């Protein structure tokens, strides 16, 4: 005991000695670095009532949340390490505002969970993070600005803003308006990838490149991405997304023998998905005109098909507090064509709170069930329309 007390006393004396105090006291430069470090807590809350004219043959009204933007909360931070180098992190989780549950069952940080380093040339990050389609092309998805249901049908081009797991990503700094990047995602080895079926196989690897350029009123972005054996969070579900009864020659649903209801196949075992997306915008006073194009190639079951989508529209500032948006998109896939018109009015109560009204109407080829977004069952015919009134708060 005497030896232990002696050691404790000696340690305290050494800790408070002038030499150690001089070595541990933060310098003015170090204090400045600490002051440049920050942690931010943020989030988005979105809720409203949506009326749909035909959902499986019947009209419907529902409280739907996370439509204009997904409900989410997150925390992000940066630490200045000196010499132009910084450490950074971000954690972001989505949830359902109506019942408080997680959007991805069993996964807390389903949107972003990453850490990395940055300097004057760009940043290198690791983990779950948004892909480069989100970074460089999603801002030109004008229909989604008018209605949250109007991101490209099925989101097969990932323009709605998607995270990808197990990824390494480089995003450059801004070089006179030009930014660019590359991403690689490792295969998921945790879900028995040797099994050649949708439920048992894990996602394969993926890679993604892209660039964005802005100069005055003009901006444009493009990205290319390849997903190998997309499963899980990358899965293909063509019936509930497009109303298709067949996809690459395969049925998109099964029939419940007891009820006769259609049960969508949510995870079709395709071999690969290739995405090319490009968009541009031009500001003319209160009007911002936008256009984008996407080409998605699916391969699987010994077949290959391309889905092509073009979108045009614009946003007009009607007053200091009121914006109006219109977007039109046309999709072509195999023998199917579809047209969708989206309209929106957004009234800003403040910089962080707004009220909005949106309407969508979609008509597909004869024999295809019309469906808008993924929140409703397909229509009993080739058309579907909806009206939404909602509120959004950003913090």
UniProtKB/TrEMBL annotation:
One of its GO terms (molecular function) is porin activity. One of its GO terms (biological process) is monoatomic ion transmembrane transport. SUPFAM superfamilies: Porins (SSF56935). It is found in: Cell outer membrane. GO terms for cellular component: cell outer membrane; pore complex. It holds the Pfam family Porin_4. Keywords: Cell outer membrane, Ion transport, Membrane, Porin, Signal, Transmembrane, Transmembrane beta strand, Transport. Residues 1-22 form the signal peptide. The keyword Cell inner membrane does not apply. Residues 13-364 form the Porin domain. Coiled coil: none annotated. Gene3D superfamilies: Porin (2.40.160.10). Homotrimer. This is Outer membrane protein.
